[in-house]
Amino acid sequence: MNSVTNTSLLKNLIFDLGDVIIPIDLTAPVRNFAMLANLPEDEVWAVWKQHGLINQYETGLVDDAAFRDHVRRLLKNDTETSDRWADEVIDTAWNTVLLDLPVERIERIKELKQNYRLFLLSNTSPIHIRRVNYILTSLNQPTLEELFERVFYSYDVRLAKPSPEIYQHVLTEAGIVPEETAFFDDNAANIQGAAALGIQAVQVQPPLTILDYLKDV
């Protein structure tokens, strides 16, 4: 679905984070870890996929420390100095996925709080959320937890989009119903997952941004 088709019943808005609120570059962390490890990018991609590390981290199966240790074990050469793979170095490389945050998107979301209940639903990791909140506060904006009535992070709920269970979890926990709810996400599979439950699911597709989809809301 490319727009909200029924605004008359609309009471609740659920937002994805990456490429909806903050632009992202999914290839950037791989490029940076490849440089750190002195490996080809495709080899790093293969390691990620083989071990399912990102999914484990984003669904809370491993914590920050275990994620960093896994990265070191998979990519670090035993002869390299530990400083090169310090926690902050790994965190910085991991956070290169996050691009500049357009403040006007935050301002529009703040306006919408006057008329709608607002929620955030993101497949993400604690390192990313801490960085996004740092970016927001440095721009004199509220944190994600202050901006939204409730935030639902995959690593907290131990579920990930597009699993139907994560959408049902949000509906149940927030006490909202699908027909009064719109969901904005950039991923087609995530949109289909939400739409299957009756949520008005809107795919945010470049060159349009969330601001274009919120004009009539």
Q: What does this entry show, briefly?
A:
With 217 residues, the chain is α/β, with parallel strands linked by helices. It has twelve helices and five strands. The protein has two domains: 12-24 and 100-213, HAD superfamily/HAD-like (Rossmann fold, 3-Layer(aba) Sandwich), CATH 3.40.50.1000; 28-97, DNA polymerase, domain 1 (Orthogonal Bundle), CATH 1.10.150.
Features of the shown structure:
217 residues, alpha/beta, 2 domains, five-stranded parallel beta sheet, DNA polymerase, domain 1, elongated, 12 helices, single chain, Rossmann fold
Radius of gyration: 18 Å
CATH superfamily of the largest domain: HAD superfamily/HAD-like
Query: What's the number of extended β-strand segments?
Result: 5
Q: Output the structural class.
A: alpha/beta
Mean pLDDT figure? 94
* Number of discrete helical segments: 12
Question: Between the first and last Cα atoms, what is the distance in angstroms?
Answer: 15 Å
Overall number of domains: 2
Reading off the top of the CATH hierarchy, the class of the largest domain is best stated as Alpha Beta
Protein name: HAD-IA family hydrolase
Pfam family, one: Hydrolase
Organism: Spirosoma arboris
Keywords: Hydrolase
